[in-house]
Specification:
Structural class: alpha/beta
Shape: globular
CATH topology of the largest domain: Rossmann fold
Oligomer: single chain
Bound molecules: adenosine-5'-diphosphate, magnesium ion
CATH superfamily of the largest domain: P-loop containing nucleotide triphosphate hydrolases
CATH architecture of the largest domain: 3-Layer(aba) Sandwich
Number of strands: 10
Strand order of the largest sheet: 6-7-8-3-9-10
Order of helices and strands: EEEHEEHEHHHEHEHEEHH
Strand content: 15-25%
Length: about 250
């Protein structure tokens, strides 16, 4: 039985003399919503880069549903269901929301001959794109040009694109950074409605957002995992309180 979606075992990343991720052990259950918090420079983004395969760890293992993925390339991890969000800057600014999603969906299809036919005739691509846009609450804005989307909607389309391959594990790195309180609220509301079978790891600088979204929280500090537990555990944790009061 696969009871663990993601296991990090003794995971370490050194950049020269700096240990960005320091012997981290972590287990995340399928369907779990896990928040990862910690001050700037704690190693949160580096942890995601290791999970996605952007660069190899200096030591330790990454196991996804029982499979050791520590040394396999990014594209193979994506095929296994590990997804992170695209940056909006990778999209076509003068195409609409729907056109961008259709192109991304088509890019995942093996049948490249579809390029020679009008894309709109491909019902399955259209239906797939429609479902994903509905999930992130952007179907109403399908005809808006990417360049005209608000910041909040841009973040939602980034999630939409990550969902196209129907990942089993979604990694979100500070998705609400730079959003207004209203945009943050609608983003978090959308996130909470996503497929409960999918596991979500959310890095958040904003503790309120992390606590609002996640059931369990992991705290990183100077590369090390200093606390992991329920929201209540984390709120009551003295070390966590000291770190946040001391650095924020
Ligand atoms: N590619 C890199 N090369 C060298 N140092 C890096 C690299 N990426 C991150 N670091 C360093 O690793 C530490 C952790 O960074 P990061 O993972 O971005 O932290 P966080 O996302 O928690 O703010 C920082 O000291 C940062 O400067
Ligand atoms: Mg970061």
């Amino acid at each position: 039985m696969d009871t663990v979606c993601l296991a990090l075992q003794d995971l370490t990343k050194n950049f020269g003399g700096l240990t960005a991720v320091d012997h981290v052990d972590l287990e995340v259950r399928p369907g779990e919503r896990r928040g990862i918090i910690g001050p700037n420079g704690a190693g949160k983004t580096t942890l995601f880069n290791l999970i996605c395969g952007e660069f190899p760890p200096s030591g330790g293992r990454i196991v996804h549903f029982g499979k050791d993925v520590t040394r396999i390339p990014v594209y193979k991890r994506i095929a296994l269901g590990i997804a992170r969000t695209f940056q909006i800057t990778n999209l076509f600014p003068n195409l609409t929301v729907l056109q961008n999603v259709l192109l991304a969906a088509q890019g995942l299809e093996r049948t490249k001959y579809v390029m020679y036919l009008p894309i709109s005739s491909f019902n399955h691509l259209y239906e797939k794109s429609k479902s994903r846009l509905e999930e992130v609450e952007l179907w109403e804005k399908r005809d808006v040009l990417i360049k005209n989307l608000s910041h909040g909607d841009q973040r939602q389309i980034e999630v939409c694109l990550a969902l196209i391959g129907q990942p089993r594990l979604l990694l979100l790195d500070e998705p609400t950074a730079g959003l207004s309180p209203a945009e943050t609220l609608s983003f978090t509301t959308m996130l909470k409605k996503l497929d409960r079978d999918m596991t979500i790891l959310l890095i958040e600088h904003d503790m309120d957002v992390a606590f609002e979204f996640a059931e369990n929280i992991t705290v990183l500090y100077q590369g090390g995992l200093i606390a992991s537990g329920t929201k209540e555990d984390i709120k009551a944790n003295k070390t966590v309180q000291e770190i946040y009061l001391g650095t924020e």
